[in-house]
Specification:
- The longest helix has about 35 residues, at about 275-310.
- It is globular and about 60 Å long.
- It is an alpha/beta fold.
- It is about 50% helix and about 15% strand.
- Helix 2 runs antiparallel to helix 11, helix 6 (about 200-205) crosses helix 12 (about 320-340) and helix 12 (about 320-340) packs antiparallel against helix 13.
- The chain has a 6-stranded mixed β-sheet with strand order 7-6-8-5-9-11, with helices on one face. A 5-stranded mixed β-sheet has the order 2-1-3-10-4, with helices on both faces.
- It starts with 5 loop residues before the first helix and ends with a helix.
Length: about 375
């Protein structure tokens, strides 16, 4: 017997309405899938990029490359996944630019000085005194003083099919590791020495026999006597790469690479195919990684500076006579390169103009840190 009460009629109508709604919703979902809206029912597959660094796994520089990749991966919510391989995993360290340009690799992590042979003006971003600027000032010039645009122009000239980011300001690099302290310019005569970039020209002009080797090959060459001296970068990298196992003398301070930065490159075609939102995330992730790298470097390098001394390493300040001669020789190299390379001259002038005002502001504004350090930490009688 069918109920004819008002309450019963309302209940039957409610059930019918609910069945109609659920049926329509199911049909709508099926239609959405059929019309190609996978985001409604499943997550989009991530974009995978394969990078290679120019550093061996043991080096803190490779750790910096991993840090950058992790920031990008996290900030994209996993929509872009960058895998970083160590030097030599796909191509030799010095072949990174070609591999990324061709698409053999999607990107890479290195330094501009390694591409010096393709266009010597590239080394102005990583070698030399930079008119006294530190690496953070060089990054300021790069972003706001025209360096970024000129670097893109350089890559276009040499067929570099890449999108480049400079980041990660490095502290002044040591003069190098030697069998005994270098006390005068003549000590460099005939010395078999490792460096890279325009520093090759610098030390060659000062009398050394220079060999440019990737980071992982330096210590074995020192151990076998193929090198008499070598520079790489910093207390942590040098310790991890094994320099204190083959030398106990490290000379601090030099103008050959006093303001270097890291470079991250993407294959241009693959980068341009990314959504605009993802490109913006990469832009900001690189700057975040730059700051974090500089902070981590202060922490780790200062610890390993102490650890190296515990390992028996003796640190010596490079004599001012050698530093002054570096500046003199550098000016000669720059003048010669500028005569034959218009881009070299253009970039050098741009850096000089930026440095003149930035250095004046910096030196007049910031305190003498050595005075404060001496006040708080110098031994007192």
């Amino acid at each position: 017997m069918t109920s004819t009460t008002a309450n019963g009629t309302a209940t039957s109508q409610l059930k019918a309405s609910r069945r109609k709604f659920l049926g329509g919703a199911a049909a709508g979902t099926a239609a959405a899938v059929g019309m190609g809206f996978p985001a409604i029912v499943s997550a989009q597959a991530p974009i995978n990029f394969r990078f290679q660094s120019t550093w061996p796994t043991v080096d803190i520089f490779h750790e910096f490359a991993l840090d950058l990749a992790q920031k990008i991966n996290d900030m994209t919510g996993g929509e872009l996944k960058i895998e970083v391989l160590p030097a030599g995993a796909v191509v030799p360290a010095f072949a990174l630019l070609d591999a990324v340009s061709k698409g053999t690799l999607d990107g890479g992590h290195g330094v501009l000085g390694y591409n010096y042979g393709k266009q010597n003006a590239l080394a102005l971003y990583s070698s030399g005194p930079a008119f006294g600027m530190d690496a953070n000032m060089v990054l300021a010039w790069h972003k706001y003083g025209g360096g970024k645009e000129m670097l893109a122009e350089l890559y276009e000239q040499i067929g570099g099919n890449v999108v480049s980011y400079l980041y990660g300001p490095m502290p002044t690099q040591p003069f190098g590791w030697f069998k005994k302290p270098i006390t005068k310019v003549d000590d460099l005569k005939g010395l078999k020495f490792r460096t890279n970039g325009l520093a090759i020209d610098l030390f060659t002009a000062m009398g050394a026999a220079v060999n440019a080797l990737p980071g992982g090959e330096i210590v074995p060459a020192l151990d076998r006597g193929l090198l008499d001296g070598a520079e790489f970068n910093n207390a942590t990298s040098d310790r991890l790469l094994g320099f204190p196992d083959v030398s106990k003398v490290c000379m601090l301070q030099s103008f050959h690479q006093s303001s270097e930065t890291f470079e991250v490159i993407f294959n241009k075609d693959k980068f341009n195919a990314l959504p605009d939102k993802m490109k913006a995330i990469i832009n900001n992730a690189v700057e975040a990684a730059s700051a974090d790298m500089s902070w981590k470097a202060i922490d780790r390098y200062s610890k390993d500076y102490i650890n190296l001394q515990k390992d028996g390493v003796k640190f010596y300040k490079t004599p001012d006579t050698i530093l002054q001669q570096q500046l003199v020789v550098w000016d000669q190299i720059v003048a010669k390169k500028s005569e034959t390379n218009p881009m070299f001259s253009k970039i050098e002038k741009s850096q000089r103009d930026f440095a003149q005002r930035a250095m004046a502001w910096d030196m007049d504004t910031n305190n003498n840190r050595r005075m404060a350090y001496a006040h708080y930490f110098a031994k007192r009688s």
